Structures are given as structure tokens and as C-alpha cells.
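Quick one:
INPUT:
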């Protein structure tokens, strides 16, 4: 099978957000703190990524931004 045909046959897979995996690994109180920051538009995306990386959870600001756009701020008009 050629690569193109293989890619077409993959079907639509839902990509799991990196932050979902990080949140599952965190202690409950830490996960709640991260969720609060994610839902607070005043907290910079880059700062969230920086703090998570500092605490052993490598993630890019783009991954944080994608999570926020899809999960946190999707209902804002």
C-alpha cells in the first residue's frame, strides 16, 4: 500500500490534547489550579506553558493555545 492510500484509510481520529494527559497526571489540586488558569483570559498562554514545563510537564505555548481555543473559550461570542 502506498503512503497516500494508507493516510486516506486512517479514518478520522480525534487528536488528544497534550494538556488532557498532563491534567490527568497532576494531583487534583494542581489540576484545578491549571484549569483555573486556562479559563482565565488574563493568564498568558506562554506563562501557563512556562510553569508547566518548569514543573516537569513539557508543553508548548501553541499546545496551550489550541486547548484553550477548543475547550475553554469555544462558547464565547
Amino acid at each position: 500500500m502506498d503512503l497516500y492510500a494508507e493516510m486516506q484509510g486512517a479514518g478520522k481520529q480525534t487528536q488528544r490534547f497534550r494538556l488532557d494527559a498532563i491534567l490527568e497526571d497532576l494531583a487534583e489540586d494542581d489540576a484545578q489550579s491549571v484549569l483555573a488558569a486556562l479559563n482565565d483570559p488574563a493568564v498568558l498562554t506562554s506563562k501557563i506553558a512556562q510553569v508547566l514545563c518548569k514543573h516537569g510537564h513539557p508543553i508548548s505555548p501553541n499546545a496551550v493555545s489550541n486547548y484553550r481555543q477548543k475547550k475553554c473559550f469555544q462558547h464565547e461570542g
